[in-house]
């Protein structure tokens, strides 16, 4: 039975789509994690749901591109709202993230409740909007793969174009300024990469879990290497293995959601890496004993 699933067309459509998204997200997420803004992606992911609902209310269509653009705009607004709060008040980053995350996500839920059964929005079907909260990876279609691949390609191309600048700005911002780099522009490049992957991943993994694709693979990879290039490669491998395994498990076991299953597999690999990795708990204890 398992071989019938592995060699089925539907399985490979879902597996390819999720793997492409997870690989691109893992690589871009490394820059976010090393910049110390890993939870910013979580805030943007939750906030972007409000953009999905607003886009539907304005255009009364569930066209994926329209909803993705709406999510992207609100995601960008939420990011800049966080910066305004921490730059113009004594509120710390973690508090600002909590305020923006809960505020925008709550707005999305309120608007979603408002349009349910509202006659003003009866011209377009509202069914499926809440799927953007938890995602529906198991229902990926061929068109979705093209959509995911396009946005992932944009993010990867930007990463390759600004790779050197991203590395310098993340690890030594003062040195980057001395070289004449615009750190604000590089921050915006990273923001565009993050938002593009977060928004395109909403339909697949959902607003709640998409940030895990950005954060967890990098944490796991960091337990095996301190070289940024190696971490990028390892994080993409961990992400792809987790995605393929998660899709396979959810396809063979009844009532197993694909997105959450992928995240569970990622977490298991991360825990194993934290224990047995080159820079994991066991390795550190051996070093301490030798000292």
UniProtKB/TrEMBL annotation:
Keyword tags: Cell membrane, Membrane, Transmembrane, Transmembrane helix, Transport
Bilayer topology: Multi-pass membrane protein
Keyword Iron-sulfur: no
InterPro entries: ABC_BtuC-like, ABC_TroCD
Transmembrane segments: 12-34, 40-59, 66-86, 98-115, 145-163, 189-219, 231-249, 261-281
Subcellular location: Cell membrane
One GO cellular component term noted in the UniProt record for this chain: ATP-binding cassette (ABC) transporter complex
A biological process term (GO) from this entry: response to zinc ion
Pfam families from the UniProt entry: ABC-3
Family label: Belongs to the ABC-3 integral membrane protein family.
Protein name: Iron chelate uptake ABC transporter, FeCT family, permease protein
Organism expressing this protein natively: Peptoanaerobacter stomatis
């Amino acid at each position: 039975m398992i071989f019938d699933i592995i060699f089925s067309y539907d399985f490979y459509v879902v597996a390819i789509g999720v793997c492409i998204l997870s690989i691109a997200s893992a690589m871009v997420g490394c820059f976010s994690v090393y910049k110390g803004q890993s939870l910013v992606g979580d805030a943007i992911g939750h906030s972007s749901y409000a953009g999905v609902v607003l886009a539907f209310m304005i255009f009364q269509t569930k066209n994926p591109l329209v909803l993705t653009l709406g999510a992207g705009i609100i995601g960008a607004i939420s990011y800049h709202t966080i910066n305004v709060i921490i730059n113009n008040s004594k509120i710390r980053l973690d508090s600002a993230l909590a305020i923006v995350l809960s505020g925008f996500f709550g707005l999305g839920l309120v608007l979603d409740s408002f349009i349910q059964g509202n006659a003003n929005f009866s011209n377009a079907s509202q069914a499926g909007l809440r799927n953007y909260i938890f995602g529906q990876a198991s229902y990926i279609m061929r068109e979705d793969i093209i959509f995911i691949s396009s946005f992932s390609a944009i993010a990867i191309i930007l990463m390759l174009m600004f790779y050197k600048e991203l590395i310098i700005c993340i690890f030594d911002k003062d040195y980057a300024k001395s070289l004449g780099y615009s750190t604000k522009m590089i921050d915006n490049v990273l923001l565009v990469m993050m938002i593009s992957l977060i928004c395109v991943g909403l339909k697949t993994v959902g607003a709640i879990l998409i940030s895990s694709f950005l954060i967890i693979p990098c944490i796991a990879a960091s337990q095996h290497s301190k070289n940024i290039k190696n971490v990028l490669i390892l994080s993409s491998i961990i992400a792809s293995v987790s995605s393929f395994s998660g899709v396979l498990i959810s396809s063979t076991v009844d009532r197993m959601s694909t997105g959450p299953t992928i995240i569970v597999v990622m977490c298991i690999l991360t825990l194993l890496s934290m224990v047995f990795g080159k820079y994991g708990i066991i390795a550190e204890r051996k070093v301490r004993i030798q000292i």
